[in-house]
Each structure stands twice: as structure tokens, then as C-alpha cells.
TrEMBL record:
UniProt xrefs under PROSITE patterns: HTH_TETR_2
Name listed for the protein in its UniProt record: DNA-binding transcriptional regulator, AcrR family
Family annotation (Pfam families): TetR_C_7, TetR_N
Stretches of the chain forming a coiled coil according to its record: none
DNA-binding region: 13-32
Annotated Gene3D superfamilies: Tetracycline Repressor, domain 2
Length: 179
């Protein structure tokens, strides 16, 4: 991740990665794959911090959704994720497949988790009447990222504290859920 963030995708080579890891280039290729595979592995590993910590509590689905939302907001607004997002945005025209793989292994993955969590809620808890949990999850993801993400991308705000992220998620869920 450090090399990609420092040199960009196009400026980072397998040679640089192998040297940083103190392994042979062949080891990188056989262990992870090519540079695109390595970049996707970086994105997935970052996302695992959020996705792999989902431990449903059958008694409190709203609490689970809130906790996931807080972890998601903190991750997506972290310096690392913002750096990767800027990198992919800047490189998307030259490497469109990389952008698509980044989306599939980042935002699309998180939307899938949100969709499952929304589907697990009793229908009366969802303020917006829709049977399409995937569409609702996309909208929720957009609300969670929204202006805070844009301000981070432009370097206008620091990463949020846990308390600020929790407050933002609470306000956002009030738009989607009933009391």
C-alpha cells in the first residue's frame, strides 16, 4: 500500500514491491499474481477490517447495522482509503479494469454487506418501502459517504473520530429507519 500511495499505480513496479518485501519477483507473482492482483489484495485487506468484523447479534440488528456503519465510515474516511480512492480516480482512465476491480472489492463489497443487514431487519423498521434491499443499500452507502467523503477527498477535513463517525451514522440511519 505504501508503494502504491507514494508512486501511484503506474509508477509502482513489481521490482519495487519485491525489493520492499525482500523477496524475489517470482515470489510476488506466484504468491499474489500480477500488479493488478496485488493492488486488489491491498484493497481487500483494507476492507477486511470492516467486513470480517461483522458478528451479528440476533437480538439487535439495528445495533449491528450502526456498528458496521461506524466501522465503514471510519475505514472509508481513513487516510489509507482516501489515498487509494484518489489513486484509483487518477488512474481510472489508463487502467479501467483496475478501477472496476477496486469498486468490486471495495464499495460493492460493502454495499453487499449493508444489503444483507437491511434484509435481516423487520420490514416495519425500514422507513423507505422497498423490497429491493440492494438498491436501498446503495442509497444508504451513498448517504454514509456523501459530503464527508467528498470533503476528505479534497483534503478539507481530517479523518473522523469514533465519536464523530458514530454521530454521523446515527443521523444517517434516522433517515432510513423508523424508531
Amino acid at each position: 500500500m505504501r508503494l502504491f500511495l507514494a508512486h501511484g499505480y503506474g509508477g509502482t513496479t513489481i521490482e519495487m514491491i519485491a525489493a520492499e518485501a525482500r523477496v524475489a519477483k517470482r515470489t510476488v507473482y506466484t504468491t499474489v499474481g500480477d500488479k493488478a492482483d496485488l493492488f486488489v489484495a491491498v484493497v481487500r485487506r483494507l476492507g477486511d477490517r470492516v467486513v470480517n468484523t461483522v458478528a451479528p447479534d440476533a437480538g439487535d440488528q439495528v445495533g449491528d447495522l450502526h456498528a458496521f456503519g461506524v466501522r465503514l465510515v471510519r475505514l472509508m474516511l481513513s487516510d489509507e482509503a482516501i489515498g487509494l480512492h484518489r489513486l484509483v480516480t487518477g488512474e481510472a482512465a489508463k487502467f479501467p479494469e483496475l478501477a472496476a476491480r477496486h469498486y468490486a472489492n471495495g464499495p460493492r463489497r460493502y454495499i453487499g454487506v449493508l444489503s444483507g443487514m437491511l434484509a435481516a431487519l423487520p420490514p416495519e423498521r425500514i422507513a423507505v418501502r422497498s423490497d429491493d434491499h440492494e438498491e436501498l443499500a446503495e442509497q444508504l452507502f451513498t448517504l454514509l459517504m456523501g459530503e464527508p467523503h467528498r470533503r476528505r477527498m479534497f483534503g478539507m477535513d481530517p479523518a473522523p473520530s469514533a465519536a464523530a463517525a458514530a454521530e454521523h451514522v446515527t443521523r444517517t440511519l434516522k433517515l432510513v429507519l423508523t424508531s
